[in-house]
Amino acid sequence: MMQRPTARRYRLILTIGLLALALLAAACARSRGRSKAVIQDSGSDTMVNLAQAWAEEYANVDSTVSVEVSGGGSGTGIAALSSGTVDIANCSRRFEPEEIAQAKKNTGKEPRELMVGFDALAVYVNKNNPLNEITIDQLAGIYAEGGKLTKWSQLGVKMPNGSDEIICVGRQSNSGTYFYFREAILGKGRDFRLGSRDMQGSKDVVELVANTPSAIGYSGMGYNTPAVKQLRVSKAAGQPAYAPTVETTLDHTYPIARPLFMYTLGEPTGAVKKYLDWVLSDAGQKIVLTSGYVPLPKTGK
Question: What pLDDT digit, counting tens, does each position of 29-68 carry?
């Protein structure tokens, strides 16, 4: 027969229980004391790999802050910042005047722009494509509505797979890369030709070109892989053609490079300001370079 616990055993059980509760309460208090500040960072798909690399490294710099990164395109980040649902919008283009006005109307604050690096917008073809360079006018002839270049043979190229049709690959209209390429290559007032394959992300463009021998696409230079080739680009026929590199971006010889931005609502403060200051530091700019982008030039300070 099981013996009933004695009073002494009751007291021991009670003491152990109270001790366990005290330890649990202390652990909870410590956990609350260590709760992290969360920075919501959203926007450009061109920048998403860079933003994620920054966030991961910053976790080692300041363990009290968590930077949560999402993509979706520059337009997505702009809309989220304008509604006050994120702290930082990553953008591969500048806010349009009407977007600034909308953000101010929604939140009472004006977006504050911070340039954080540069990206050379590379033109990709399949690795087996014989073409090595292209002009701005030829790109416009391929991509623009009413453009006359629809066959690789028109560029003097004989495709090894026998297909002559140029398959245009681009980005969806919510993308800052889409806006920049349209303005830089097609010019104001012109639009893309119908029938292009518009991809959601920068990586998707390069993957489709890699798997489609007759394709041509545009994406950030940091998305280069061995399965594709980056074409040298010249401003006009007869002029030198340049590959997208750090050097050709900074000396402006590569003709389709653009700045990268991070936006906040008003002047950043607290954890967000500390994080952005770190992004601009030598440590943060080193990650720009190692991620395949172009860091800001040294100021000489």
Answer: 444 445 789 999 999 988 999 999 999 999 999 999 999 9
The domain 37-117+259-290 belongs to what CATH superfamily? Periplasmic binding protein-like II (3.40.190.10)
pLDDT for residue 12 is more than 80: no
What's the CATH number for 119-257?
A: 3.40.190.10
Q: Contact 273/262 with Cβ under 8 angstroms?
A: no
For residue 147, give the nearest of 182, 179, 175 by alpha carbon: 182
CB distance 202 to 45 below 8 Å: yes
Tokens of 212: 């489609």
The 10s digit of each residue's pLDDT in 246-262 is 999 999 999 999 999 99
Q: What is the pLDDT of residues 37-47, one digit of tens each?
A: 999 999 998 89
* pTM confidence score: 0.78
**Cα dihedral value 230, 234, 240, 242, nearest 10:** -30
User: Which run of H or E residues covers position 287?
Assistant: helix 282-290
Q: Do domains 37-117+259-290 and 119-257 have the same CATH topology?
A: yes
Angle between helices 48-61 and 282-290 (to 10 degrees): 140
